Amino acid sequence: MRIVLEHIEKSYGSRAVLRGIDAVIESGEFFCVLGPSGSGKTTLLRLIAGLERPDRGRIIFDDADVTDLPARDRNVSMVFQNLALFPNMTAYENIAFPLRVRRVSEGDIRKRVKEMAELLRIEGILNRRVDTLSGGERQRVALARALVYEPRAFLLDEPLTALEPQLRRELREELKRIQRLTKITTIYVTHDQTEAFALADRIAVLGGGVFHDIGEPIRVYARPKTLWVAEFLSDSPPNFFTCNIGGDSIIINELGLRISVAMPIKGSERVKAIIRPEDIKLENVGNDVLLGEIKRVDPVGDRVLYEVEVISRGTRLVVKELATERIWSLGMRVGIRIPLDRVLLFDDQGNAL
Amino acid sequence: MKASEMVWTTVIATSLAVGSIFPLAYTFYLSLLTGSLSGQGAIGFLNYARMLSDPKIYWSIAISITYTVLSLITSFLLGLSSAFIITLISRGRRLLEAVYTIPLSVSPIIAGIVWSPPAVWDDVNSLIHFLLGLPFIDVTDPLIYIPIMALAEGWLWSPLFMLGSLVVIEELPNDCHEAAAVMGARRKDIIRFLYIPNVLRSKTMKMLLVVKTIDFFRAFEIPFAWSSWMRASESGAATDTLSLLLFKLLMTPFEQPISYIAAISIALMILAFVAAITIYRILFRGDGA
Fold this sequence. Notes:
A: alpha+beta; six-stranded mixed β-sheet; five-stranded antiparallel β-sheet; 8 helices; 33% strand; elongated; B: 289 residues; mainly alpha; 13 helices
């Protein structure tokens, strides 16, 4: 099913949560809404599910306007952040619930619950009460319950957040597999970039109640449309510069860098530049690179964060390299290579140039 | 713990233990005596042996069990239905809850009177006989009045099960209601497929059932009231639950020795206890309890 969001607005009292959301989610697409907490992700999902009504705008399923249709008549499914499994009931009864509501015969219910259990590999726990299950098992029961009635769309509200990393990875793969298999239109909201990038066909970055950028994960990461997205998608503090414009090029004074641009820049006095720590490469001192000195070394998992001072300019850069690469130690002199095509440039309004 | 605290703790613990055990132990002791007026001598378990051949005891146990089962069913069903009615309405919910709770504050003996022939059934009979031309309901027939007694008992205790159900329902997280709505459930589906299984399996309701089993097994007031309406003052009548039988025997001291009554009361206690344990075992099976 194709879902169209047309200029959705929603406020709670004087607090505007969504300020005009526009998007088209194609049939069978895995669509991730990525945003920090409090950005209105859950509200957006609840509007699509029909648990809330928008103040303005329309929600369209295929060709039908469902803006005022109550949740129970939309035939979508939603996995809540805390799963919302029914306590005191077994996994089987939980999964059977939406079928019982639809007055499916007990024989068919047994058959379909069994199929779902096989798909999610939970055949062995069907007769156990959900409060006796582990986190991962509960997760699978919730997914089975949400898929068993073949809903038109599948909405997920950060269902993996509470799990430990390994289980999370495993369930992420599982989710992707099932989504590809069932080709169900899926909207997944999360604040976790890794999750969004691993799962999505397209990502929408939500901040301050609007979508800042919608696109394929690789494009959104490589060429974010706004400064806000670039900052949000950087998990280590990005190197941030305010630059001058000189004719058809942009000058980063702090680094003595000059980047030529194809088109002249209009309507903007100054340009903001972001150089991502992972885009900068450290190497042996050479002729055509900036000279720097390692001032700080912070190992973070499989990466190492360096703080490098550019000699004779005093500017400090954050550089991130794989921990499997050569480790530079404190006080060492290094060459700093900045690929100019990876420098992200934004105008005064924060829009990408 | 300081020495003085220890002394006090010991004293309090001992008095509590003695306070709760002594009456039982003394009753048991009494049950082992002859209890005749000519003097008291120990006769061991003869009183218990005698009980086994006393038809009044069997009759009374049968009545107590019937009464308990019927009362449990009526109070449970009435309580559950009132709870579901309350969840269905949106306005005046608190008021209705208060109204439904009233029977809980009624003294059981009053319940025996409120549901009595002069209070209700004579009028009901006039109505169905003279207005509808149907035969009278014969409330003097034990097959009629035992269910009526149980109905009175059920009415009296239904609020307890109603409140228990409401607690369970209100404990369901709001997310569960929203999840049910997204899955397409209407109000009645929610009651049928979510509330009922949850209420039936909740520890709260199971505990209430166990407690009320013991309670109904010892029922006295309502059968006592009905025993008066039926002019059934002699022991062994169809109103006589074990508690009422004991009372009647005590009121006619020359009929049975006190030691025999003590033996019956010990038997009553053991029966109620066994019934409660059995029900507890059945209900909490698989709960790890």
